[in-house]
Amino acid sequence: MTHHPLNRTDTTSPKIAIIGGGLTGLFTATLLERAFSQDNDKTLVPNITIFEKSRSVGRLATRYRTDSQTGKNWQWAFGAQFFTAKTASFQQFIAPWLETDLLQPWCAQVVNLMPANNSIESSDIHSKEQWNTTQARYISTPKMTSWGRELANELQHTTIKFKTRVAPLAQYDGSITEKVDKKTELFDDTGASLGYFDWVICTAPNGQAAELMADSNFAAQSRITEPQMQACYTLMLGWSDIAALPKALSKDVQPEWDVAYLSNSILDRIFIEHQKPAHDDLLPSVTIHASNHWSEQHVDDDIETVQAQLLQAAQQALNWNEANAPSQIDSHRWRYAATVINDSADKEAPSILVDEPHQWIISGDWCAQGNIESCYQMAQQTVEAIYNLRKVL
User: Fold this and answer.
1) Which of 115, 135, 167, 323 is the most exposed place for a label (fewest CB within 10 A)?
2) How far is CA 94 from the centre of its chain?
3) What is the pLDDT of residue 253?
4) Among 211, 206, 203, which residue's Cα sits nearest to residue 226?
5) Are β-strands 83-84 and 137-140 bridged in parallel, bridged antiparallel, or unpaired?
6) Are 29 and 383 in contact, with CB atoms under 8 Å apart?
7) For position 356, what pLDDT does the model report?
8) Short-list 20, 336, 360, CA closest to 170
9) pLDDT per residue as tens digits for the range 64-105
10) Is 243 in contact with 252 (CB distance < 8 Å)?
């Protein structure tokens, strides 16, 4: 990305609100700070506030448990397992963290797995491919959440307010003249004011973004819900030691593998956490993603019922019995996990949604391919939009 100095026609430092502290929000704050830092007048560096409803940033979710006897951990990346960097600009962006080994390539051995059924007694596992550094998949170490926290720590002109839910912007009737000095006042869900902002950038999933902008006269309201989002259930399993693993996971019985793509199953992929780079000290930990189609069909089901179904499917895939059943079991439901990609020729290029008069922007990975690189691309577009609009407004 070309970092433009953000020239202004006024002489005040802009106040920018970012709703959502996921990677899109963090990338946006990072790129905004970098763009403003190139301005000759350092007094115009923006005052950025990120409002995050949870207790942490980054959305690269990690869960862990500690064995009280050994002090060692089970650990599961129960959100995104990895990401790719296909564009030169994103490769350049992640380079500093690759140099520190916070980000590392994951050269996983990938297999196809056919679960056991009435016809076969044990799972059928065949080699599919090995990921390499040419078309690298990257992970954050020692946890997938580590990168998000480092991004947050490196921000110099950004305040992050955790456990803060921003209320819908319905108090605005679309008349720019009724806003105080062309600023937007945000409120939390209790009605308390969060302050006035020159720009409001929403990076929440599109279902939540639609709720935030409902009845606000956002210029592109109808387009927010155009991308279809699907759910994903995640199952997390742990064993007490390597010797307790079922045969499908045992290196002594099967060729070593790190990732399995499943067929004829409600499950989509299996990831072996303790074989990832910089994960050697973990107790045996396995993360399993259900298929998005099945997850969406059962998105409102009772989580315990869903977990029982996932466990049954996992047992068919990994072939455990009572003696080598997992000792740790957990699950999680992601309501907005995957963007349905429309490959039709007349589909518009991925883009953020901009309301110029209000100076509101809707962004997020769902605006594009729904992956981590999309977070970066939408952050780029947001900075470009603010730069271009600030020259004419």
Assistant:
1) 323
2) 16
3) 65
4) 206
5) antiparallel
6) no
7) 92
8) 360
9) 999 999 999 999 999 999 999 999 999 999 999 999 999 999
10) no
